[in-house]
UniProtKB/TrEMBL annotation:
UniProt record similarity statement: Belongs to the YciI family.
The protein, known as: YCII-related domain-containing protein
InterPro entries listed in its UniProt record: Dimeric_a/b-barrel (IPR011008), Sec-metab_biosynth-assoc (IPR051807), YCII (IPR005545)
Domain of life of the organism encoding this protein: Bacteria
Domain YCII-related: 1-90
């Protein structure tokens, strides 16, 4: 099953995001211990097209519990960067 993770940063989180960016990227390099696969991911940006304001993931996983465990273990989550995280099932129709 596919899941979308939509995570919006808290106000003023950009310096903390940048300080944890390498740890976040290393974490994403091997998701096998959670039983999930990243189909697509990247930062959400403001209307200027550059300033990072959150994260978006499309995850393939057996169920929601695996996605939640993966998300909670992310260094960005542990650093308190995200103010709001929504995890939603997704049905692929195109692409």
């Amino acid at each position: 099953m596919l899941f979308a993770i939509h995570a919006l940063d808290r106000a003023g989180a950009l310096p903390t995001r940048l300080a944890n960016y390498d740890a976040h990227k290393a974490f994403l390099s091997d998701t096998s211990r959670f039983g999930v696969k990243i189909v697509m991911s990247g930062p959400l940006v403001s209307d200027d097209g550059q300033t990072m304001i959150g994260s978006l993931f499309l995850i393939e996983a057996p169920g929601r519990s695996e996605v939640e465990a993966f998300n909670h273990a992310d260094p960005f989550a542990e650093a308190g960067i995200w103010e709001k995280v929504t995890i939603t099932g997704f049905l692929r129709r195109q692409g």
